[in-house]
Amino acid sequence: MDYTSLAESLVVWLREYARQAQLPGFVVGLSGGIDSAVSAALAVRAVGVENVLGVLLPCHSQPEDAAFARLTAESLGLEHLTVELSATYDTLLAALPPGHVMARANLKPRLRMATLYYLAQSRNALVLGTGNKAEMMVGYFTKYGDGGVDLEPLGELYKHEVRQLARVLGVPEPLITRPPTAGLWPGQTDEGELGITYDELDAILAALEAGREPRASPAAVARVKRMVAASAHKRAMPPAFPLERAGD
């Protein structure tokens, strides 16, 4: 793949989407990971740095997450602000009955989503997503959390393709080589939670999409197939009852 041409095509697509939406810019959450760095870099090229806002959204997060997020913003000369959500999270959790550990964890990205939309509407902007194809195919995102965005520039790119695109865009190397993490709890990594490396996940998904038998262990293939099937609801609009009216 020609990643220079891909970058140019993505920039044109983002610029045209913003033009058609009649919204001049983008708001993007900066997690300190490679995906948000690449999305922000594309947005800056598409509409100009003055029309992009980066947002750090710590919520009992690790200090290194903010450090890497600031590295993203500084490398782009990007305006950025920090909205500390820890106290808000604690207050909301205290008002709720006890819940499952993942329900508590997913409350964090849902608070971030609400914050990003508040800022985007205040600035007459679009919320830019940061999800890649592998994560979207297996449902490794929070519904109405980090999945609640206006558009996904990386949604057709596997993780290894995002890495290559990052180098073309000049994303700082520490962001490219940092182990991916959603920052949901101390020590959490994406690959640890998925139970598979991104390289293996990419390869299995690409084979399945092409109708080929993946070159991987049967257990890994079965695991990926289960994740894809179980997360189908995340990739679809909420269904409505198909009411048939008399005379229609």
Distance between the termini: 49 Å
Quickly count the domains. Answer: 1
What is the CATH T-level topology? Rossmann fold
Q: Which strands sit side by side, in order, in the main sheet?
A: 3-2-1-4
Quaternary = single chain
CATH class: Alpha Beta
Query: What CATH architecture do you see?
Result: 3-Layer(aba) Sandwich
Q: What is the helix fraction of residues, given as a range?
A: 40-55%
* Weakly predicted, low-confidence segments: none
Care to count the β-strands? 4
H-E order: HEHEHEHHEHHHHHH
Q: Rg to the nearest angstrom?
A: 19 Å
Tell me about this structure:
The chain has 248 residues and is α/β, with parallel strands linked by helices. The model has no long low-confidence stretch (mean pLDDT 95). It has helices at 3-21, 34-47, 63-76, 86-95, 101-123, 133-138, 159-169, 173-177, 190-194, 198-210, 218-230; strands at residues 25-29, 52-56, 79-82, 125-127. It is globular and about 45 Å long. A four-stranded parallel sheet has the order 3-2-1-4, with helices on both faces. Helices cover 54% and strands 7% of the residues. Helix 2 packs parallel to helix 3 (63-76). It has one domain: Rossmann fold (3-Layer(aba) Sandwich), CATH 3.40.50. The longest helix has 23 residues, at 101-123. The N and C termini lie far apart (49 Å).
Sequence-ordered SSE layout with sheet pairings:
Elements: H1 3-21, E1 25-29, H2 34-47, E2 52-56, H3 63-76, E3 79-82, H4 86-95, H5 101-123, E4 125-127, H6 133-138, H7 159-169, H8 173-177, H9 190-194, H10 198-210, H11 218-230
Parallel strand pairs: 1-2, 1-4, 2-3
Helix pairs in contact: 1-2, 1-7, 2-3, 2-7
